[in-house]
Amino acid sequence: MTHSPDTLVDIPTARRTSALMSRSRRERRRHGALVAAILVAGGLALSHETAAAQGGTLRVAMTASDIPTTTGMPNNGFEGMRFLGYPIFEGLTLWDLTRSDTLAGLRPGLAEKWAQDKADPSRWIFSLRRGVKFHDGSDFNADAVVWNLERFYNPQSKQFETQGGAISRARNPWLKAWRKIDDFTVEISTNRPVSYFPYVITYTLIASPTQFEKTGASWAEFAKAPAGTGPFKITEVKPRVSVELSKNAAYWDKNKIPKIDKMLLTPMPEPTTRLAALRSGQVDWIEVPPPDAVPSLKQAGFEVVTGVYPHVWPWVLNVDKPDSPWRDVRVRQAANYCVDREGLQQTMKQCGFDINFEVVEWGAMLVAFRNPPTAQQSLGSDALNISLVSSDISRMASWFLSSNFPPNGANWGHWKNEVFDGALLRIERSTDLKEIEEQTRRAHEQLVDDAPWLWIVHDGNPRAMTKKVKGFANAQSWFQDFTLIEIAK
Amino acid sequence: MWRYALRRLGYAVPILIGVSIVVFALIKMAPGDAADLLIPPETPKEVAAQIRAKLGLDKPMHVQYAVWLGRMVRGDLGISIVTNEPVAASLLNALGNTLMLAVPAAVLGFALGTILGALAAFNHGTILDRVFSAAAITGVSLPHYWVGIVLVAIFAVTLNALPAQGMGPGGIPRTWEQVRHLILPVFTLSLIPMGVVSRLVRANVLEIIGQEFVGALRAKGLLDRRVLVHVMKNASPSVMALMGLQLGYLLGGSILVETVFNWPGSGGLMNLAIFRRDVPVLSATILTIAALFVLINIAVDVLQAAVDPRIRR
Questions:
Q1: pTM here?
Q2: Given an 8 Å threshold on Cβ–Cβ distance, is A368 in contact with B31?
């Protein structure tokens, strides 16, 4: 790695991301013994087993209903990014997924280093990695970066990808302008200074412009024979059935050339089907086994790996509706104190809350979340239970800034806290690490004390695998490093 | 005869237009559209509006319907909003996969149902009747997705004799590897047609063997197997009508069975399209299945007329 801290405005990942995670840390303390036991029994134990032979195929059952898009900006949320994103395509910055004992931070990706302009903090300079080739053999350079930014952010460009563009702009709405300085230097500007920009640029994945032209300048055709720069390349796509990834032996980071030859990814949305596929030996790895099957899986000798990762599933409280009980901070705090996170035995009723649930499908939930909490789409609800990412400060800004009330952003509950807004503003504009840390602490205090959410679920991200799977690091991230994995013969 | 078949075919046109309007209306009633499902929760308003406009989802429903209908009339099933794949290719692929299950399941279900029903009727009141009737009722009554899960638990997980899910190599089954992927889903799917056909055959045969002409046939000295042929021929028109309906259901693909066995057929495609609000895929799939249903029923009507001269009159 040629990461050179002297030229960079570095950001302490673990501390910054801790803001949104603090509640889970409390839980972690409570669950300490259990988590430790699971880690020892599961993920860590895996890495200490005897070395497995090189080669082989890792067969994975995903929870997705279909194969995530293979163009380099997968749909199907972050599971799509986990399997059809980072293994094949890379960003200028990347997540460090090699450790399970700390929250995943950043590492240099297709940019060897980056720097924020101290005079104009909305200007970033990325120094690109040399000698990187796409899977089709073409060179990665500044033109490729500019081409991909046009692809996502310029609807007038020939290569504009409607779906991928929308996903990119949702995750990184700050990106405003870009410019090639030379063949290996790119300048990117944001619409306001955002110190956490290196985190959000991880979501802008780079695909091969040459391969796009070779496949008839069509994303539908490119999807059948895509090319990125990652450690795996896509070698077969069978719509609705499977995707085959193969080792990229020419990968630029010689230390991260995959140990396995292939990965076979199968969409399998039904949990009992995934379970049966694992237990009958059709796959080696399943995402999210049915919870009631975990004891029997362990008994049958399968590894069930779980651990902390930045995924919360809170009740977002509606503080805009005139008759919402959550408008009173004491009620929000009472609800948070009421929940017995240890055993989830205690009901809210015991604390005097009388709750009616309206169960809706995921699509209806998304529609409600994108509209103001008093809109008809929210069905008059006082709170909404939704799965959200809590990986870094950019996500905290998305969920809690008062400038992000729907439909302009994702602060569904219309929670407004001036101290929080002020702290976030200072974090965004600061280049001083100490100040960023201090303001992160302040922002986080408001999330706890003013309780915009009922912090109830912190996903343990269970996955089950056969004992043949070795070397899995179980990163504290939505994404995983599959280059570490080996398959025992 | 052919005029009759053509007239029936003509009736199919308003049926299909009606089906397409209902599909569009139902999708419109469901919350959200394809754009909502494609983009992450934090998508800003203007980005959501852009993608909606790009996909044509910002136009009024009747305009979207007219555009879609115009394309369908020209034989263009359109492009999936979500996958960008031509709908025709996805649909053909899915229907092919469903046919691979439906045809053997229909053959097995109809054959078993007819045999069990006839045996039960000819042995009316005996223990055999009760056993076969119980088998038929069980076939109809058990939720077939549950049967599928139980079969997987026994044959795939415990005995490790058959695969738990998927099509394996796929394609028209020629090798044992391909066939073994079919066994559990085909058997599961055959249970319902087996049950309903068996019940109807039993009831029809019982009614027919009580009629005077059967006594006359026996009085003529016909052997039992010749009598059986006459009875079955008389029982066949209504049984064929039922088989037609059952075959239609099977060709539509079973969302539940395809989900349990992770089989990429038309039921699964329809299910995906519903959850993604992928109107081009959903409308084309439902219309094609509806068209198949109508065609099968016309074929059954023609066959009935061929078997039973009374219908031709």
A1: 0.87
A2: yes
pLDDT digits (tens, 9 = 90+) for A306-359: 998 999 999 999 999 999 999 999 999 999 998 877 666 567 788 888 888 889
A215 CB within 8 Å of a chain B CB = no
**H/E stretch holding B236:** helix B224-251
- Of A365, A384, A363, the residue nearest A319 (C-alpha): A384
Over the stretch A424-448, which tens digit does the pLDDT of each residue have?
999 999 989 899 999 999 999 999 9
Both tokens assigned to B128: 């055999």
Residue where the block lists tokens 């259901």: B249
Structure tokens at A97: 């997924």
B41/chain A closest Cα distance in angstroms: 6
CA distance, residue B34 to nearest chain A CA (Å)? 9
ipTM computed for the complex? 0.87
Query: Nearest-CA residue of chain A relative to B153?
Result: A276
Q: Is B37's Cβ below 8 Å from some Cβ in A?
A: yes
Determine the residue type at A153. Answer: Y
Would the pLDDT of A29 be above 80?
no
Q: What is the pLDDT of residues A255-271, one digit of tens each?
A: 999 999 999 999 999 99
Across the interface, whether the CB atoms of A268 and B165 are under 8 A apart is answered: yes
Tell me how close the Cα of B24 comes to any Cα of chain A, in angstroms.
17
Half-sphere exposure of A325 (CA within 13 A, CB side): 12
Residue A455 token pair: 């912090």
Distance between terminal CA atoms of chain A?
32
Terminal CA-CA length for chain B: 10
Comparing alpha-carbon positions, the chain A residue that sits nearest to B157 is A280
> In terms of Cα–Cα distance, which of A328, A350, A330 is closest to A339?
A350
- The nearest alpha carbon in chain A to B54 belongs to A162
Q: Which of A375, A465, A411, A476 is nearest to A49 (CA)?
A: A465
- Which strand ranges, in their side-by-side order, compose the sheet holding A315-317? A383-385, A315-317, A453-454
Placement of tokens 């009374």 in the chain: B310
